[in-house]
Amino acid sequence: MNRKMPRVKCPVCQLTITNNMLKRHQDNTCWGDTPITDALTERTYQYWKHKKKATKQRHAIDWKLSGKELMQLLDDAGITHDDVGRSSSSYQLARYEDTGDYAVGNCRYITLRENIQERKFSDKALESMQQSHAARWDNIVTPHGVFNSKSDAGRKIGVTRNMVRRRVDDPKYPDWYQEDNSVDKNHPVEKSVEENECQS
Questions:
Q1: Does the N terminus or the C terminus of the chain have fewer Cβ atoms within 10 A?
Q2: How many structural domains comprise the chain?
Q3: What's the pLDDT score for residue 77?
Q4: DSSP states of 9-73
């Protein structure tokens, strides 16, 4: 018969947790003296816990906000955690100029649309987008010309992206292949056969 682990409350944040996880919770994931006593506060806590872990692991950014400080930022914006999301009118926690740590004085809640606009003008964001674009530069060589990507080749040739991919990967089509990605990205891709014929 399965026996349920005894559950206790964290004496600091009042989160109900199994007894064997209490020490680990207090060392790593307790967000301070803001009581977790209702569903909305618990959702906010889960968001805090996820962001604290993800920003450090994925982006090497320190998360220095306590639960009370995060709740204060929500209050300053006049919203609750239920207003946080991914739609254009939803709110996101954003750092000023997309730099520095998540800390008091360096971040606030703004709409997703405002966050995107701010990121567009951030040097760090522009550099990230340029690197991402360079990584996606495929230089797909076909009998119809050389294209920036499989999707681009498919659109201009009139086949699906998957068809282009299959032919690039199939040794039966030696004229379809992907060039070395180390080519100079500053040079434009040569025009397709059809475009050259139209201009000649």
A1: N
A2: 3
A3: 92
A4: E-TTT--EEEGGGHHHIIIII---SS---SHHHHHHHHHHHHHHHHHHHHH---B---HHHHHHH
Task: Say if CB 153 and CB 142 are below 8 A apart.
Answer: yes
Average pLDDT over residues 169-182: 81
By CB neighbour count within 10 A (0-12 exposed, 13-18 middle, 19+ buried), where does 70 fall? buried
| Beta bridge mates, 8 | 17
Residue 130 inside a domain? The answer is no
Same domain, 15 and 50: no
Q: What is the DSSP letter of 79?
A: -
> E-assigned strands of 76-167?
91-95, 107-111, 140-142, 145-147
Q: Are 40 and 60 in contact (CB under 8 A)?
A: no
